[in-house]
Batch of 3 targets.
Target 1
Amino acid sequence: MDTTTIPENVSKRITALRFLLAALVVFIHNNYTAESIKTILLSDGQPPIFVQNEFGRWLQLFISEGLARAAVPLFFMFAGYLQAKKDYSYGVLLKKKAKSLLLPFVLWTAVYVFYYAGLKLIVLKLAPQLLDHPDQNCLSWTALDWFHKLIGYTPDGQGGIVHPPAIAHHLWFVRDLLILSLLSPLLKLAARKIPAAFFAFVAAAYLASFNVRFVETQALFFYAAGLFWGIYEIPLFETLDKIKWREILPIFALLFAASKTRCGSCGGPAVICACAILLKVSGAIAAREKLYERAAFLAGFSFFLYAVHTPVLSNVLAEKFWLRLFPMTNTFFSLFEYFGVSLLTIFIGTGIGIALKKIVPPLYSALNGGRS
């Protein structure tokens, strides 16, 4: 991170959060609920057992649908801030984003295409009797099918679109960040020339869940917020540090509870409040030397963990191994899966990154977008 234009305190606090945010994304995606479990089948064709009480349900909701929902928005906000502060020429920007976003998007998509489509073709050639639907494979996909599976924007049949790519849904973050980076000169111009109108538009679109179609609405809002933070040098951390924990935590609890019960419109404010909490947490990490050193080391693997953790790693761990050894027959084993698979995914995913960086540095660099 270029600290010549970025205050050292801001640089440290962003670094302090990067790995924690990636880890929270793992908890988002490993979050079985009574509703989601109905759509999942194990290899024997049976749905997993899932028995959980209200305490367990709300604990998972609080982490995965509460605090963790701030992780991706903060990644977008940090990206917008850094984009504003570094202010590269457009030619330099394109070169940097080709390396840091486009190349990893292509490579990781290729990995997941091989896993889901390539391996099926190999099995189809060697042992077709093992496949339930051998006729349903990538050879029958149309050009439009490929686009929806690799890029996203799939029609939902009700006049809307499903944004994430079908094959690797979590890569929507990389796709949207690339699009916003390419549009950043226009977005920065709007932030400078018509700041009030521009911010009012992106905030209203986010809070009203308006579909802007070309990117996720939350991506546009938080990236724009990062631009405002950098362009106008808003003392964000200093302002948040003045808010006391006894003030912000009850507000978040109320907004979160409201968003999950009777007032769905509180979801946006709850995420914004969760962002403020995590930004305050960064100060506690940055203030402790040994803790910050570990966070700074792991920060270099945050993007790799984000890219590798799903849909293969956590799904295989949970559905092929964990749930066979520890079926979720009660609340304890439901939470055991929730924390166990999530932490194991974080450990294995990070370990793969560390090993790959040591053994095949060029491959790791390409998959990680050149991030150190």
Target 2
Amino acid sequence: MNHLDLTQFIEPGLYLVPSEGEAIVLTRKVIDESARALLNDPQKLTPSMRAAADYQPCDICPERDTSEICHAILPTLPFLDEIDRYMSYDRVTAVYREPDTEILMIRETSMQEALQYVTILSLMYYCEVGRQYYSFFHSVNPLMPQIDIATAVFHNMYHDCEGDLQRLAKTLKTMQEELLQTTWCQVKRLRLISQGDAFLNAFVSAQTTTELMLMEVAARLRGMQGPLRRPGDDR
């Protein structure tokens, strides 16, 4: 693992530290500023790019007829040149600072897994369709293993659905169908402009996480009795 100067990780968000070169800063502040600059720069986001079919909002997007470009692609576009220098399997030290805390999570992982933070923001915050599910990812740390993310999202959905497993299963089915479509749209867009595979595989991993959530719901429906219990509830 790289020797890290922890004083450089002040803003909440994700920092990727490769074995060589400078850290890639993927905080919400930097992502938002870079996305706004991109939208306002016709040299970077050319009229022909904006007009391309694969850049248009998805069929299920509520702003399909009014938006110039899919908003879900914005968190990735400003960082493609930096990320494309790496393959999805390249190792990187990922540092994540949660909002409103001094705690840092530091993990040596693959570039693909580290980019889960960007895919979650893309699909659940910038995407108009996915935004309705954003609250389900409360307290999800993007450096968690996929199964832990699936479990955390399930807990959030369970409480949002007030323990109604049938309602939860229906919500997750709709969520899975919509995320499958919006994720596939991102993959098609990235294939047009990305020279690497890190972002592409990160979005494919997002599909896998959704599948894991569906499997967990099915298991709960088959065997769960009574209210959901979290680890430590008996203390």
Target 3
Amino acid sequence: MRKLIPSGTLRTMLLPPTYGQHVTHSTEFTVLSVEIWATGLVVNIHLASDGGPEPRIILQDHFGTEYSFRESATVGSRNLQTFTPSVPPGTRSLTVRSADDPDGRPVVTFAVPLMAVPDESRSPQDGNYQESRELRRPA
């Protein structure tokens, strides 16, 4: 399971402000959380039943960032899906949609807290990586 988790540090975990349930004729699932890692995102999903179909989801933010599905793992009724990249600095919201919903209705929308922006002058590879204390939000 470790291979599924993005590299880097866990920056924050988003919990749904409302019950993030999605029900259609082909799938039923509930979004439990989204983990924001330094290098990607992990969406934690509860399936309606063990062995239920893996939901196909789409992530969107208010910037229009292209999030790419990387891999998925299902154990019992729990499904984890990873996406890259991580949220860009200043992201205000992140919406999960079902790719199978012809109406494109949101399953759940998360408010993304203002986070420190990584210091671009340092890298994790050289051991001098640390996050800047400067917070930025686009105008």
